[in-house]
Write a structure and sequence with these properties.
The complex is a heterodimer of chains A (544) and B (138). Chain A has 544 residues and is α+β, with helices and mostly antiparallel strands. Chain A folds into two domains: 350 residues, Alpha/Beta hydrolase fold, catalytic domain (Rossmann fold); 176 residues, Sandwich (Jelly Rolls). Chain A contains eight helices and 25 strands. Chain A has a ten-stranded mixed beta sheet, sandwiched between helices. With 138 residues, chain B is α+β, with helices and mostly antiparallel strands. Chain B has one domain. In chain B, the strands form three sheets. A four-stranded antiparallel beta sheet of chain B has the order 1-2-6-5, with no helix packed on it. Chain B has a four-stranded antiparallel beta sheet with strand order 4-3-7-8, with no helix packed on it. In chain B, a hairpin with a 2-residue loop joins strand 3 and strand 4. Chain B starts with 8 loop residues before the first strand and ends with a helix. Chains A and B meet through loops of A and helix 1, strand 5 and strand 6 of B.
Chain lengths: 544, 138
């Protein structure tokens, strides 16, 4: 880890915390809304306008809001580093919860951390969308974008304390739960001049002519904490997040127990079958946190999920969030590229995490060439064009499946390769034409692999196999376990979830073993380390 | 949340109401952006439930036949959604009301979509004697 500082620990900057809000709500006049009276007296320099979200949403009856949906407030808490800046901006949004309970302060522990590291960090009030409603997550995205717009306005207002203090080219939006779905929609809406939200609604301009927008923010990354998926679906189909995407979710999440954010993750930056080598230049990464639950990512939400005895302690879960999101912010907002290693491989951060905590992580770099992406068809496995070659199974059943890996019970559109063997020595051999595989231009051979709870896997035992890479007469062999554990699923809610681990094998380590990256002829999965097993493979690629 | 947690629907009612100020703006947007002239009414579809949905992350989508209703909201006795174009009722009259957690498995109710009494209109505008939404959603 060298000299890298723990991104979950406070930085050296002092900061001020300011409450901003729209004038005239008078929450104090409504006894049930006592938790919101803090927004009755915002800092005088931080009084915000109201927005009309009536085309997107109605307000729930769970709280007697003192305003209609045509005039909802922009309320929040912002932690502002002292100094001239300009500082990047991070904006957090909560999800659905009892509307009488203010969910907004629940991310101040993360805002404080980021502010101390040199980031203007806010957590916003979207409580007026909370309650028994459903399908309103587009409105959450719009509210989120309107808050970012407010910061842009302040940044450009010569007399405002935030004038010139925000670097608008470095913006991170983070959402939890339904707010986590909402940030995906915000990313989708961000470049649009208008949107027809759904079949019952008219087209709404987002160019400022009707009050909403324009946006077109430079969103460096979208981060979703235990998000829902597809509760709101645009008319054009499920949202495909166009920006870089980070996902964090706990295995003991008793609310979004379906880990449906994995489907959002799959849709983002997927291979374009017509142009498989073309990248949209965006990355995606996920962190699966064994033992973490849903509510403890918000410091004010009580435990709703499994009993405290079976989940990670709250302090540990907050530490995980601080390290993960701190590293994300360091890497993408503060350009400390060395923290990219935390996104690429959670092992980089193990010393900063709670002792004994277990993770699974995935990372897809914008720069990659697939040997196999599996998405051609539910058909026998093949090498993916433009790489040429053959895939041959020996004593292993290799089938492509439309498998709901995480038991989301949602429609599945991503194909996975299933490998099952019954005796040691089985193998899957991927033979490639070396001239079609430019491995020498990349840093790693990366593959996503995970085990299931199917009977061929011994319960609660790590799965393992050998990766063999050959060029000419030289072969390098690596136990998969030497790169990462392939843990047995955490079986909590029904069948355990198959969360694949990205194994990143440095090309340099192949070279050390005599393999010529200009002449890679085969990559082999050799099942010699367990007598039987069932593994799922998401893709095999050379990557950075 | 499991399928067994699905809302238990006990009744359905469709009421033509006076558009709110926001609805009038929405109707104007329909006319300007989609060149669609609609009757000046807002149709409130109320589905009565035994208990209101909990304010959790997940929730059940509401279906009319095979159509997923994009959004719904709560009132004291259940959930509701709003329709501006009465063609919806022509196309979906009598279709079953269902719930789904995941769009692949469905929980049936005994309810079917009913048709509102169409308001008498004059010049494409609904008479002001329709009930106010706040009264319908009490």
């Amino acid at each position: 880890m060298g000299a890298l500082a723990n991104p979950g620990l406070p930085g050296s900057l002092s900061f001020d915390t300011v409450i901003y809000a729209s004038a005239g709500s008078n929450y104090g006049g409504v006894p049930a809304l006592s938790q919101y009276t803090i927004y009755d007296t915002p800092d005088p320099a931080y009084v915000t306008p109201r927005i009309n979200i009536s085309v997107f949403a109605n307000l729930g009856i769970g709280a007697p809001w003192p305003f209609p949906n045509t005039s909802v407030p922009l309320n929040g808490h912002v932690c502002i580093p002292r100094g001239r800046g300009p500082f990047p901006l991070a904006v957090f949004a909560h999800g659905n919860h009892d509307p009488l309970s203010n969910s907004t302060p629940g991310y101040l522990y993360l805002c404080s951390l980021l502010a101390s590291q040199g980031i203007v960090a806010a957590t916003i009030d979207v409580n007026f969308l909370n309650g028994g409603n459903f399908g309103e997550n587009d409105a959450r995205g719009i509210v989120h974008l309107e808050h970012v717009k407010q910061f842009r306005t302040w940044n450009s207002t010569a007399t405002h304390p935030l004038h010139g203090k925000i670097d608008l080219n470095r913006i991170l939006i983070v959402g939890h739960s339904r707010g986590g779905e909402g940030v995906g929609h915000a990313s989708f809406f961000n470049p649009l001049p208008a949107i027809k939200p759904d079949i019952f609604s008219p087209t709404v301009p987002l160019d400022g002519s009707a009050g909403l927008g324009p946006y077109r923010f430079a969103l460096k990354c979208i981060a979703a904490i235990a998000p829902t998926d597809r509760q709101y679906t645009p008319i054009t189909g499920p949202t495909v997040v166009p920006d870089s995407y980070f996902l964090i979710h706990g295995s003991r999440d008793g609310d979004v127990s379906t880990f449906e954010g994995y489907n959002t993750f799959n849709r983002a930056h997927a291979v374009d079958l017509a142009n498989p080598t073309v990248s949209d230049g965006k990355l995606k990464a996920l962190l699966w946190v064994l033992g973490a639950n849903h509510n403890q990512f918000n410091s004010t939400w009580p435990i709703f999920d499994p009993s405290p005895a079976t989940t990670m302690p709250r302090a540990d879960q907050e530490q995980v969030a601080k390290v993960a999101l701190g590293a994300l912010a360091q890497a993408l907002l503060l350009d400390r590229v060395e923290y990219m290693d935390v996104l690429r491989d959670h092992a980089t951060a193990v010393a900063w995490m709670p002792a004994g905590a277990t993770f699974v992580s995935q990372y897809q770099d914008p720069e990659r060439v697939y040997l196999q992406h599996e998405q051609e068809a539910v058909a026998p496995p093949q090498i993916s064009l433009p790489v040429q070659g053959t895939a041959a199974a020996d004593a292993v059943t290799a089938t492509r499946v439309l498998k709901d890996l995480v038991n989301s019970f949602a429609p599945i559109t991503t194909i996975t390769l299933r490998l099952e063997w019954n005796a040691p020595g089985a193998r899957l051999l991927l033979q490639v034409s070396p001239v079609t595989l430019p491995a020498e231009r990349y840093k790693v051979l990366a593959l996503r692999v995970g085990q299931s709870t199917e009977p061929k896997n011994a319960p609660n035992r790590d799965q393992d196999f050998t990766i063999e890479v050959s060029s000419g007469s030289r072969t390098a062999s690596f136990p998969g376990s030497s790169v990462h554990r392939l843990i047995y699923p955490d079986v909590v809610f029904g069948a355990g979830k198959i969360v694949m681990q990205t194994l990143r094998l440095p090309i340099a380590s192949l070279v050390e073993r005599g393999v010529d990256p200009n002449d890679i002829r085969s990559v082999e999965f050799l099942f010699d380390r367990r007598s039987s097993g069932t593994l799922y493979v998401g893709d095999v690629q050379v990557s950075n | 949340m499991r399928a067994s947690d699905a809302p238990q629907a006990t009744g359905i009612e469709v009421v033509a109401t006076q558009p709110t100020k926001a609805d009038r703006a929405t109707l104007a947007m329909f006319e300007s952006t989609e060149r669609k002239t609609l009757p000046g009414a807002a149709y409130i579809v109320k589905v009565r439930l035994k208990t209101l949905p909990e304010p959790t992350s997940r929730g059940f989508a509401l279906y009319v036949g095979d159509l997923r209703i994009p959004k719904y909201w709560t009132y004291r006795q259940g959930i509701w959604f709003k329709v501006f174009d009465p063609q919806f009722f022509v196309e979906h009259k009598g279709e079953p009301i269902r719930f789904s957690l995941n769009d692949t498995e469905f929980v049936k109710t005994r309810l079917k979509l009913t048709v509102p009494k169409m308001a008498k209109t004059k010049g494409g505008r609904t008479a002001a004697r329709l009930p106010a939404q706040e009264d319908v959603l009490k």
